[in-house]
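Q: What residues go here?
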């Protein structure tokens, strides 16, 4: 098992735990944060696969997904913030 395989396994575990938190989260904010963690775990796995396979197209996917994830986080935080006032 190489170091990249170990990193992929840890990333998969982080995704599984975040998925569990999405299901069991007591509040909407907890579920939103867990969803973000799960999304970025998938992005990290794609980045690790880019390094492992040498495919440069994966890097473009990582950049676009990171931008979309940031925008989704901002939009979700605005929605959650409006719900409390």
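A:
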């Amino acid at each position: 098992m190489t170091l990249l395989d170990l990193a992929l396994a840890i990333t998969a575990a982080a995704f599984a735990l975040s998925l569990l938190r999405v299901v069991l989260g007591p509040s909407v904010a907890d579920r939103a944060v867990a969803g973000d963690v799960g999304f970025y775990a998938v992005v990290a796995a794609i980045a690790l696969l880019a390094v492992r396979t040498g495919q440069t197209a994966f890097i473009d996917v990582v950049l676009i997904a990171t931008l979309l994830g940031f925008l989704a986080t901002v939009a979700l935080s605005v929605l959650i913030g409006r719900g409390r006032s």
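A: Context that may help when evaluating the design: Residues 48 and 54 are 10 Å apart (CA to CA). The helical segments are 3-24, 28-53, 57-84.
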